[in-house]
Amino acid sequence: MPESLAITKFSDLANPTRFLGLAARILPWMAGITAILFALGLYLTFSSEGDYQQGMTVRIMYVHVPAAWLSMMCYSVMAVSAIGTLVWRHPLADVSHKTAAPIGAAFTLIALATGSLWGKPMWGTWWVWDARLTSVFVLFLMYLGLIALNRAMDDPGKAARVSAVLILVGFVNIPIIKFSVDWWNTLHQPASVIRVDGPTIDKEFLWPLLIMAIAFTLLFFTLHIAAMRNEIWRRRVSAQRRMAARMAGQTPAKEA
Amino acid sequence: MTHTFYISASYIVAAIVILCLIGWVWLDGRARQRELAELEASGIRRRSARPAPTDGAAL
Amino acid sequence: MTALLLRDLKLSIRSGGGALIGVLFFMTVVAVIPFGVGPDLNLLSRIGPAIVWIGALLSALLGLDRMFQTDREDGSLDLLLMQEHPLVLTVLIKCLAHWLGNGLPLVIASPLLGLFMNMSEVAIGATMLTLLVGTPALTFIGAVGAAVAVALPRGGLLVSILVLPLAIPVLIFGVSASYAAVEDPAPFMPPFLILVAITMFFAVIGPIGAALALRNTAD
């Protein structure tokens, strides 16, 4: 029965102690592979020729595109974790989507900043209300809202469930937001801005881009697992402190 | 301004953000490990008393 | 259910005058705009629909945090949770009551503000119609935010932050339909129908999400 086997493996992971053991084993490997891939990707990036039309600025793409990809993937990871929280009450899912939000916000920030830096030489302005930029910006706002919500609540379990609801509602809305921003953009297309559609990607650009994308993705997962481990530790510390306080409260009571 | 400026600026921004992220995760982990070790030293253990906390070994 | 609707409606009109304050805020926001952009009537009539829509959006957010919080404070939220009726339906009714108390006055006040903004009659009518269709969507999507933040002592600002990004589609289609009614080449119906679709979509998603969040905060 391979299915039930898979399920037991998955539920095994629900045990935070087992997760910690697994994380301790795979984290050094993941970090190492990420570092090697980044070295390779950066080497390929800087040895590649510039694009004829866009000049050397095409190199920004190697950071911008993977970051933009991660900003979306991270939200999907959070949505899956949110389902895990609400449907299976998976204890790790709470930790997962809570820790993914700051990481996702950071990568979205990178995507926005590099997009803006790419836009200045290409379009002539730092910020264009371009459909893609705008929807990424809205995504960034959603990340920040989720972080704010998580910070505002004291009880981690309740915060996790409530923000899971919000993550899912947001996830359902993302296609609508994307669609409406596209509509809005075609309606208000500014005439002065020269739109540069993405260059048809040559093989020469494809390899560095692919390697950088894989490196960024691995970086995300490494950071995510490490952050989850930190969060589990944090919860343990607070639980043990509470226990210690209870014990400290009990002993004098007995003496009295 | 040259294109090199924009390219280096975007790489620097990305590097700063990523390094901040790595630093945050790293330092947070160190701090939590230290707290756990302190609690351990003061004799407070988890109820499922692990014989030796393997995850604290990296400290 | 009707009793709940009437009760909520009475509360929203009577206690604290939530509806009145919403309309006042709406009028104040719109009245402040000319001081910012200058008294140029052509400019005002051009940006009028957008200003009225943004004002309505902001004032719709204003009353949201009270949607479930008053019920929580006097304990009736627990009663609602324990009822035999499905919670989704209860939330839907509460949304309707909230819209009748807070959204509808905004729609009714909008033509007056349209006159202030030197908008043409067609533009005023179109803005009013799109507000009539669009503000329920704001209430439904806001219900999720209100339910999420119900347990927080100062959740009002947080609700706005959480809800505003999700309300962007409503704003986009509401404003573009209003403009399409005035500007000739753009057709009015497509954005308007999409706005209707968004409202109906949120009428499903909003109560479900809000009910889920309420169940989870009550644990």
TrEMBL record, chain A:
Chief location bin: membrane
Recorded superkingdom: Bacteria
Keywords, sorted A to Z: Cell inner membrane, Cell membrane, Cytochrome c-type biogenesis, Membrane, Transmembrane, Transmembrane helix, Transport
Record's keyword annotation contains Transmembrane helix: yes
The keyword Nucleotide-binding is annotated on this UniProt entry: no
A biological process from GO: cytochrome complex assembly
GO CC entries: plasma membrane
Residue intervals passing through the bilayer: 26-46, 66-88, 100-119, 131-150, 162-181, 205-226
Membrane topology qualifier: Multi-pass membrane protein
Gene Ontology molecular-function annotations: heme binding; heme transmembrane transporter activity
Residue ranges of domain Cytochrome c assembly protein in the record: 25-188
Protein's cellular compartments: Cell inner membrane; Membrane
Family: Belongs to the CcmC/CycZ/HelC family.
Function: Required for the export of heme to the periplasm for the biogenesis of c-type cytochromes.
Stated name of the protein: Heme exporter protein C
Organism: Aliirhizobium smilacinae
Automatic annotation (TrEMBL), chain B:
Lineage: Bacteria, Pseudomonadati, Pseudomonadota, Alphaproteobacteria, Hyphomicrobiales
Recorded GO CC terms: plasma membrane
Record's protein name: Heme exporter protein D
Source species, domain of life: Bacteria
Role played: Required for the export of heme to the periplasm for the biogenesis of c-type cytochromes.
InterPro entries, per the entry: Haem_export_protD_CcmD (IPR007078)
Membrane topology note: Single-pass membrane protein
Gene that specifies this protein: ccmD
The keyword rRNA processing appears for this protein: no
Membrane-spanning ranges: 6-27
TrEMBL record, chain C:
Protein name from the UniProt record: Heme exporter protein B
UniProt keyword Transmembrane present: yes
GO cellular component: plasma membrane
Annotated membrane topology: Multi-pass membrane protein
Cell compartment(s), UniProt: Cell inner membrane
Major localization class: membrane
Molecular function per GO: heme transmembrane transporter activity
Biological process annotations from GO: cytochrome c biosynthetic process; cytochrome complex assembly
Chain's gene name: ccmB
TM stretches of this protein: 12-37, 43-64, 85-108, 128-150, 157-180, 192-214
Keyword Lyase: no
Task performed by this protein: Required for the export of heme to the periplasm for the biogenesis of c-type cytochromes.
The organism's taxonomic lineage, starting at the top: Bacteria, Pseudomonadati, Pseudomonadota, Alphaproteobacteria, Hyphomicrobiales
NCBIfam families from the UniProt entry: ccmB
